[in-house]
Amino acid sequence: MRALIERNQAVPTLVHSMDEIPLENNEHVKAFCEKLFRNEIDVIVFLTGVGASALLNAVEVDYPREQFLEALRNITVTVRGPKPTVVLRKWEVPIHYTAPEPNTWHDILSIWDQQGFSVTDKRIAIQEYGKPVQDFYDELHTRGARVLPVPVYRWALPQDLSGLRNAVHATIQAEFDVLMFTSAQQISHVLQIAEVEQSAEKWLQAASHTMIASVGPACSEALQQAGLSVDFEASPPKMGPLVKDALQAAPEILAKKR
């Protein structure tokens, strides 16, 4: 990302804001596998490629790899976007539904609806990524589905918090013109550190005077929930458009905000 920003003639400050921590002795995965092998799962939703790979790694601790993959081939498989698609193809597991861009849970529901797939009375396993997607689960319950979340890793603050602390104070000191966010969890961690530094309100106030750029809808929603207006959302939701198009739009947006 640093090189991408520099190629677009801007000065980057990259901040390590989170780590993926695999869940050890994962009882959720064991419970999911037992249901899967008993034919008690109708649908599985893969939300991330990293999560799909982590799920297989967790499964292989207790069960044969091929038993798991063969069981997946006998149920309806849905993926949220291109990254889990790559993983499933390597596994030679058929994909029945793929959410279109911007690859949110809303788009999963949309593709199901467009193709006439009803989730009523379906038993749906969902590979989580870092934290529950409660709004998705609530909508599935409303539609009559039974939901089994399968957490395989969680987001954690990095061991070295100096980068986050420095970024919080640099924002307050008006050292940044543009703040780019590439995941919803980043906002949570920035605010968490700002709270520890007793600077949350100052950070939010300072951030509101920068250009806030988001990689996609889920990230934008988290920013808005934190009280920040999103000035730019990448479309499609990828790093290239986020950096290039946001920086092209920055002069006009900043002129209006300052």
From TrEMBL:
Tetrapyrrole biosynthesis uroporphyrinogen III synthase domain location: 2-243
Any Pfam family: HEM4
InterPro entries given in the database record: 4pyrrol_syn_uPrphyn_synt_sf, 4pyrrol_synth_uPrphyn_synth, UROS/Hem4
GO BP term (any one): uroporphyrinogen III biosynthetic process
GO MF annotations in UniProt: uroporphyrinogen-III synthase activity
CDD domains: HemD
Protein name per its UniProtKB record: Bifunctional uroporphyrinogen-III synthetase/response regulator domain protein
